[in-house]
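Input (Peptidase M24 family protein):
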Amino acid sequence: MTPTDLYPADRLERAREAAADAGLGALLISPGADLRYLTGYHALPLERLTCLVLPVEGEPFLLVPELERPAALASPAGNLGIEITGWAETEDPYALVAARLPAGTARVGVDNHMWAEKVVAFRTVLPDTDQALAGEVLGGLRIRKTGAEAEALRRAGAAIDRVHARMGEWLRAGRTEREVGRDIAEAIVTEGHVRVDFVIVGSGPHSASPHHELSDRVILPGDPVVVDIGGTTEDGYCSDSTRDYVVGEPSAEYRRLYEVLLTAQRAQTDAVRPGITAERLDAIGRDVIADAGFGPHFIHRTGHGIGLETHEEPYIVAGSALPLEPGMAFSVEPGIYLPDRFGARIEDIVICTDDGGERLNRISRELVVLP
Ligand code: ZN
Ligand code: ZN
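Output:
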């Protein structure tokens, strides 16, 4: 896998066309997933301005603080054939961008995660230029993964699977969620990520709280434990997977809940195919859970897109008539939560292909009973 595969040179051209179609005169992209997507440059988010300027007419350029120029040149952006210009400490980088935008640029797209201080600084130097969200342009490109991006997501999925496979090394009664979480975080890195994005270990009643993270609660015999973990790999793509464990013997009631959830999640991953809408896919799992009497306890959407960010388009949610297309990658993560008692969630990343859904998390979805 060469960087060129992940960052094809035609991407800037496609972004430029999409910006023109949206009536924008230019895109202004600061460090983050959009910049990495367009250029391969994984820039540090700093108070000093780094900005890809992509005018609809004229040549794009990457403006970076002079001291960051070697890093920018060494990144895949250095192979794109675009100008990479450094600005000196005494210069005003916002004024430099404004001076180089085509005169009369009425509207620019700024990336969705640009810091407010930078958005406001651009507003000050471009008082007659409206600002819009670049995400409305770039989201349409990023939502369909290329073959190389799908490969990168497969590697991320395999990496987080390896962490789940080792859970028995750390998860046992008598340890706190935080102790277990520390071990998991270390393994996320040793098993093929460069960064830990989140570690959720929800034991006992905490399993009923979808976004519980870690606490000093001591895990007790018979506790169900939701483990939802994710990280970012070297090439910037994210993993996100949830499995459920029981330390000791689970109750019959919990087993029943888990069987319903597993049936729902399987039905959803099996239903992924081009043309099915996001809301239909959501309903397929929701109906199984509702028919079993747990309807009010599935309290969140089915899933979110994933790529260079853990949460991105498409969202698998009621009310979204978006038809799925080959290349779309997203989580399928229904959950059932009985407040103050217990809950469970099963989460796989699935990529839509011409032939249906491909699960990128291959480890068993059955309830794991640990000694
Ligand atoms: Zn998750
Ligand atoms: Zn998720």
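The domain at 3-141 is CATH 3.40.350.10 (Creatine Amidinohydrolase; Chain A, domain 1).
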